[in-house]
Amino acid sequence: MDLCHVPATREKGWYLALMAPNVKGPNYAWLDPSRLYCHPQGLQDCVADLLQPFQGDAIDMVAGIDAMGFILGAAAAATLRKGFLAIRKAGHLCVPTEAQPYSDYSGRQKLMEIRTDAISPGLRILLVDQWVETGGTMRAAIELVERLGGVVAGVAAICMESSEGGKWIQERYKCSHCVPPRLQPRFDQHQ
């Protein structure tokens, strides 16, 4: 799809066709959204679709998860006129942090960090990432926010797979994603 082309009819998720399939092997996510982020209307529509379920909800800050979640999270924060908090992979913050171990979509053990001075008790945080595949990364972010006394106001991602971890998150938190129900089985099967 041309990065300047905007379809005459823009149904929810039309921009998903902008994502590129993985050609590098199993240690990479199966779809790459960076091309979607390059498309001005695609990015705007994606953010609007992610935020639609949260219209009127109390949200104090948006937090994006390292690294692709930074793009969507910052765009969502700008749209909502809220601050943005980066939840980082360990070793990138030079300030006091809380850390949480997790396993990512490839099964690798990692450590995630959050600065300790950004969240005060009761602060309502919208968590944003590009993808929730196994749920490990998002669950670690949830645990960090809640450990610091924050409240998870919602979870938003381009896709939330119907994995055990994805279901755990969807059962406990208000969630938003961009995949239409008719396409969800294809995303769950990585087709």
Automatic annotation (TrEMBL):
Keywords on record: Cytoplasm, Glycosyltransferase, Purine salvage, Transferase
Residues in the signal sequence: none
E.C. designation(s): 2.4.2.7
Location of the Phosphoribosyltransferase domain: 56-177
One Gene Ontology cellular component annotation held by this UniProt entry: cytoplasm
One term of GO molecular function: adenine phosphoribosyltransferase activity
Subcellular locations according to the entry: Cytoplasm
Main location: cytoplasm
GO BP of this protein: purine ribonucleoside salvage
Biochemical pathway: Purine metabolism; AMP biosynthesis via salvage pathway; AMP from adenine: step 1/1
InterPro entries in the cross-refs: Adenine_PRTase, PRTase-like, PRTase_dom
Entry superkingdom: Eukaryota
Catalytic activity: AMP + diphosphate = 5-phospho-alpha-D-ribose 1-diphosphate + adenine
Family: Belongs to the purine/pyrimidine phosphoribosyltransferase family.
Quaternary structure (record): Homodimer.
Protein name: adenine phosphoribosyltransferase
Protein's organism: Loxia leucoptera
Gene this chain is encoded by: Aprt_0
